[in-house]
Amino acid sequence: MSSSLENSTRRRIEMDVMKLLMSDFRAALVNDNLRELHVCLEGPQNTLYEGGLWKVHVELPEQYPYKSPSIGFDTKIYHPNIDEHSGSVCLDVINQTWSPMFTITHIFETFLPQLLDYPNASDPLNGDASALYLNNRDKYEEKVKTYVAKYANPRDVSRAFNLEHGLPDEDRFDNKFNANDVNGQVDSRTTSRRTDMDDNDDNDDDDEDVEDLSSLDEDSADSDLDMDL
């Protein structure tokens, strides 16, 4: 990889990671490594996963943003397109149709919520979940809710996340989750995790590769988010 491309890739990673850390998602670097993060994902409203909270592992490849991040659920989840044991995700926009216009934040704002709401049972990573989804929808929904109650309790996931990353323990999820009503809404949004990052800017603002990456048309990217997952 050329020096100019390495610089542009590094700048793009710093920009995208900072954008995620300053967003409403609770996120933290793993071992202060910009290429590895943990992010808390709340279950989308009006879905079977509403009321749950999942810790998601993100790794950025050397070729990012030209190659998609690696995404895996550390918190167990029952879904046709998510491996129950490894947490691997089967999602076309991540695995096949990724574009440099997309960012890490797009994954958590749009791609994963859409996947949870609209499973693709014809291309499963969890065969049992896929079979239930296609053949016994009531039993499938019951099992999803059971997993949410058992593994994705927001209070427990949040506390474990904070403990792992040395963050203050917030009781914002206390008394807001009822294991007998896993479809209840978590009222408050996840607070942002603002992390100080060293400014390693080496004044390469005139680097054409950097400008190409930094000035990606976000409006164009947003117009692609409604693609068929």
UniProtKB/TrEMBL annotation:
Keywords tagged on the record: Acetylation, ATP-binding, Nucleotide-binding, Transferase, Ubl conjugation, Ubl conjugation pathway
Biased segments, Acidic residues type: 198-229
One Pfam assignment: UQ_con
Transmembrane spans: none
Keyword set includes Zinc: no
Signal peptide: none
Annotated stretches, region: Disordered: 172-229
The family this protein is said to belong to: Belongs to the ubiquitin-conjugating enzyme family.
Assembly mode: Interacts with MAEA and WDR26, components of the CTLH complex that contains GID4, RANBP9 and/or RANBP10, MKLN1, MAEA, RMND5A (or alternatively its paralog RMND5B), GID8, ARMC8, WDR26 and YPEL5.
Protein name (Swiss-Prot/TrEMBL): Ubiquitin-conjugating enzyme E2 H
Species name: Pichia kudriavzevii (Yeast)
